Amino acid sequence: MFLLILDKNPYKAAELVPDRLKFKQLLELCQLICSAEISNVYKKIYQGKELQEWIKNNRMWTFRFLNGLWFWHLEHIKAKPQTSLDIYKIRNDLLDSFDNKKRLKCPKTIIFRYVKEYKSIYPSNSELPIDIGIGQYKRYLIWKEERRGNKKCMNSTKI
Description:
Layout: H1 10-16, H2 19-35, H3 49-57, H4 59-76, H5 81-96, E1 109-112, E2 126-129, H6 130-156
Antiparallel strand pairs: 1-2
Helix pairs in contact: 1-4, 2-4, 2-5, 4-5
């Protein structure tokens, strides 16, 4: 699990997540919110403790990021009604968990998490300054897309 944070603005960050990953990112975010004990809609998992802590410390930003993904999902994904209802409940639990009268503050850091096949100068689960983390996630996405392209080529090659 990871959060693809690609911009300081949470709505722009959600928009920049590739369409093919947006719904998965929304579901992973919901799972992390539940695992951070902000909601109990989904069963708690123990993966991603660093991300769970980050979410607890950046609830308003996370809520807006979730909203960006949520509205995209409503327009583009024909999810099961129960799935959409679960996401809605998690969204409301997150909203209820912070003082929404406070001004949105841009997080100063992000958790950079990636699969073990990826090579980086930063260890997975590193807490990085936000500008560095955004750059790292953009590079990581390029790597993932290149890998995906190679896999497509390999899958379409008949031997």
